[in-house]
Amino acid sequence: MAVYLAKEKKQEIFKQYGGNENNTGSTEGQIALFTARIKGLSEHLETNKKDHSSRKALLSIVGKRKKLLSYLAKKDIEGYRKLIEQLGIRK
């Protein structure tokens, strides 16, 4: 069970974090999108503990987000700090 977001929800995320709803390539927007998908998959896995394919998908998304976060930290440390504060990750 893959967790997909509605087109409107994706546009809202990219507008809030990427600066423009059509700017889907921004690092901040992609990290925010991955965070939303991670939250959805986590909720799914709380009720469906034996869904191993979703667990694997969750781990791959977490790895992709981690790579993007490290890239953003190298590129723009202030933007990195602002984004993790807004998303509530890396407590």
TrEMBL record:
Keywords: Ribonucleoprotein, Ribosomal protein, RNA-binding, rRNA-binding. SUPFAM superfamilies: S15/NS1 RNA-binding domain. GO terms for cellular component: cytosolic small ribosomal subunit. It comes from the Bacteria. CDD domains: Ribosomal_S15p_S13e. GO terms for molecular function: rRNA binding; structural constituent of ribosome. Gene3D superfamilies: 6.10.250.3130, S15/NS1, RNA-binding (1.10.287.10). InterPro entries: Ribosomal_uS15, Ribosomal_uS15_bac-type, uS15_NS1_RNA-bd_sf. GO terms for biological process: translation. One of the primary rRNA binding proteins, it binds directly to 16S rRNA where it helps nucleate assembly of the platform of the 30S subunit by binding and bridging several RNA helices of the 16S rRNA. Belongs to the universal ribosomal protein uS15 family. Part of the 30S ribosomal subunit. Forms a bridge to the 50S subunit in the 70S ribosome, contacting the 23S rRNA. HAMAP family: Ribosomal_uS15_B (MF_01343_B). This is Small ribosomal subunit protein uS15. It comes from Membranihabitans marinus.
